Amino acid sequence: MAEKINPVEVLVREAKDVYRKQFKGEPDVAVFAPGRVNLIGEHTDYNDGFVMPMALPLVTVIVGKKAAGEESTVYTTSDFKEKQVTFAMPNQNALIRAIPRDGPKWSLYIKGVIAKYLGGLPPAFTAVVHSNVPLGGGLSSSASLEVATYIFLDALTGDTSVSLTEKALACQKAEHEYAEMPCGIMDQFISVMGRQGHALLIDCRSLTSTLIPVADENVVFLVINSNVKHELTGSEYPTRRKQCEEAALILKKASLRDANLEDIQYLQSINTDEEIVRRARHVITEIQRTVEAAEMLKQMNYHKFGLLMTKSHLSLKEDYNVSCPELDELVGLALEVDGVLGSRMTGGGFGGCTVSLVYTHVVDKVIGHIKKNYKGNATFYICKPGPGASQI
Ligand code: GAF
């Protein structure tokens, strides 16, 4: 009843078939980069806090090869109106390595990464992009496209000089400047650094991370796509970032990472805008929950881990106001089933997915219960942590 997730090899085979049709040749490079589900630590990355995502077995694949001349052509198998773009590559003589920010939105992620690539001047190429990460579903389809592009360029240039962290930062810059989304570092970082069978606790201040095994067959993470996307994400995300910066400024802290619960009392005592106080309270408590949750996962204390997930959802709903009726409904329905240890929205919010920690033996029951009662049309993914991006 859950979606069947095709292995990377199948996606690569499909992408190669499309390439042969589109470009009448044989691609000689194939790469993939995963989407992610964030288990806990939401809206904390741009506050220098902790996050704990895992890489998904849902991935973006790019196949292709170098092309003669100075123009690259990319074809996407995703269901977009404009499926193919051709654009001039930056050339040796260009003072600034910029590519015009035009064309369909999906192409901006690719152009942005070419512009921010750190491994030398990339050659022109032809490529096919093929992905099974649901678009706009809060599972980082865009970061997986950026990171896949970066790894694809590495394969073309042969560069090995750039660290994984620098690659993630370059992809984040691409998203800031080309997609104009002021995201944190979580999505690009996990797509680059993910490890099979592990969640990753990321310290978004020091950009260091700790792998935590998730290998117990008795539990699974069930990702449920609400299949709704409210158009608020674009405008509300930068607003949340500004509100957090405002709270930190009032508290004279470098970021909310440095604040604690006493600071919330202080904000209240000086009559700070009530919304700002709630935003700060979410971030401060979420950072604490994430650190505690990492410890619980290490100890395989799923009961406490699940409770922290559910608390995280409530905080995102009540204090951060980034949930929506569909996500609340999915979390509520999941928690009605015995054997569901915790449930929360995941990603930026206003639609997209929830993630629930579920005993393996009840997962079909949870899916059945939600199919029967959810007012919308949900999609289900039973997810084990997959590997980070690489060439195949
Ligand atoms: C989006 C952003 F891209 C991430 O950086 C992160 O802030 C997330 O929303 C919320 O936790 O996915």
Automatic annotation (TrEMBL):
InterPro entries: Galactokinase, Galactokinase_CS, GalKase_N, GHMP_kinase_C_dom, GHMP_kinase_C_sf, GHMP_kinase_N_dom, GHMP_knse_ATP-bd_CS, Mevalonate/galactokinase. GO terms for cellular component: cytosol. Residues 297-375 form the GHMP kinase C-terminal domain. GO terms for molecular function: ATP binding; galactokinase activity; metal ion binding. Keywords: ATP-binding, Carbohydrate metabolism, Kinase, Magnesium, Metal-binding, Nucleotide-binding, Transferase. Residues 19-65 form the Galactokinase N-terminal domain. Gene3D superfamilies: 3.30.230.10, GHMP kinase, C-terminal domain. Residues 110-195 form the GHMP kinase N-terminal domain. One of its GO terms (biological process) is galactose metabolic process. Belongs to the GHMP kinase family. GalK subfamily. This is Galactokinase. The lineage of its organism: Eukaryota, Metazoa, Ecdysozoa, Arthropoda, Hexapoda.
